[in-house]
Amino acid sequence: MAIYKAAISAVGGYVPETKLTNFDLEKMVDTNNEWIISRTGIKERRILKEPGKASSFMAVNAAKEALKKNGTDPLDIEVVICATVTPDMRFPDTANTIAKELGATNAWGFDLGAACSGFLFGLTTGCRFIESGAYKKILVIGVDMMSSIIDYEDRSTCILFGDGAGCVLLERSEDDNGFVDADLHGDGNGAQYLNMRGGGSLLPTSAETVKNKDHYVFQDGRPVFKAAVSGMKTATNTILDRNNMTKEEIDWVVPHQANMRIINTLTDFLEIPKEKVMVNIDRYGNTTAATLPLCLWDYEKQLKKGDKLIFTAFGGGFTWGSIYLTWAYDSN
Ligand code: COA
User: Fold this and answer.
1) Are residues 143 and 46 in the same domain?
2) Alpha carbons 242 and 9: distance in angstroms, whole number
3) Can you tell me whether residue 71 is helix, strand or coil?
4) Which end of the chain is more exposed for a tag (fewer CB within 10 A), N or C?
5) How far, in Å, is the centroid of ligand 1 from the Cα of 218?
6) Closest ligand 1 atom number to CA of residue 286
7) Which residue segment(s) compose the domain that 41 sits in?
8) Ramachandran region of residue 220, left (φ > 0), alpha (ψ -120 to 50) or beta?
9) Tens digits of residue pLDDT in 131-170
């Protein structure tokens, strides 16, 4: 039973300056701008190229913006949840580095995987923490530096991914707006289609794993595409049914940005006007855990108090789900 209602009270984001366009990729692998746009909707992605900078750098920039917008002192942050598959190091957790860099010295924190569903799982966890009454202020960050695990000789993956970070501040809601419901799922049978095998305890890094390119993302795109469409549809339907909501009542859909064709299928299924669907895949590509908060960052000015938002994502694992919340502040 929730004691308090949890709400997003600020949003921050960060993308690196360096752009990797489809035309740049044409010079690197056997691909072309037309294929990439028609099959994925992506025109360019951002790449973090500065030596010595990694996921924590992008996350800290996103979190600083969220804290500043809302006038929150980093010392008041109690928990930092960092969703990522590209932590700075295997350990310690990147959440700890982020807290240190922010001066959030009273916070504990942890990293959360779940690939492209990481932010969805992190947001649910953070909201449940707030609802329980145990915590008042939590940062939930989705960040990935996908360029660190992509093989730029593999045209089936290198065209898809980019780097970025998004962050939300969670607080107790001042009214009835905020987090309502989540429908989250996992299926380990999906591991064979989307993974990075090397560098874990199963296949510790060795000359052999590097030779076999096991330290890069592997994806068998077609089965992932099919499972993504059906998983996101089903979870969204469950959320609508469970909350007695009609499709017409949705003000905004915040979909994972993996492929414009997946987003369009979802939009058609929901029979929702395209203007109500947040899209930035054309500019950032798939930033894995960062796609959902980066959508909020881009669209924040258009959000009004009371707007009904449906988040939905699908990722490696497989992991997927949908969240329903109402926006808690007038953003403009
Ligand atoms: N440029 C040009 N041609 C390419 C290419 C590229 N970058 N990548 C693949 N191709 C070719 C393939 O070799 C294949 O050629 P063939 O028919 O001669 O064998 C053809 O294009 C079609 O390949 P296919 O893999 O079937 O394309 P697709 O329409 O499934 O699109 C993805 C590939 C990856 C864009 C798509 O499957 C996808 O988005 N999958 C899901 C991603 C996702 O949701 N991930 C979830 C979380 S990250």
Assistant:
1) yes
2) 25
3) coil
4) N
5) 12
6) 48
7) 6-172
8) beta
9) 999 999 999 999 999 999 999 999 999 999 999 999 999 9
**What is the whole-number distance in angstroms between the Cα of residue 220 and the centre of ligand 1?**
8
- Look up the CATH number of the domain holding residue 259: 3.40.47.10
282 in the same domain as 209? yes
Atom 10 (ligand 1) nearest CA: 156
Q: Which pLDDT score is estimated for 2?
A: 85
pTM surpassing 0.85? yes
227-272: pLDDT as tens digits: 999 999 999 999 999 999 999 999 999 999 999 999 999 999 999 9
| CA 224, chain centre distance (Å) | 17
Q: Is the Cβ atom of 33 under 6 angstroms away from ligand 1?
A: no
Q: Give the nearest ligand 1 atom to 31 CA.
A: 1
Distance (Å, whole) CA 99 – CA 194: 30
Cα 44 to ligand 1 centre (Å): 17
**Pick from 272, 276, 278, 274: nearest CA to 247:** 272
DSSP conformation letters of 9-29: EEEEEE--S-EEEHHHHHTTS
Count of domains observed in the chain: 2
CA 195 to each of CA 22, 116, 216, 223, 227: distance values in angstroms, whole numbers, following the listed order? 24, 12, 8, 13, 15
* Residues tagged active-site: 116, 256, 286
- Are the C-beta atoms of residues 10 and 63 closer than 8 Å to each other? no
| 291-305 per-position pLDDT tens digit | 999 999 999 999 999
**pLDDT number for residue 331:** 82
Tokens 């001042």, residue?
A: 174
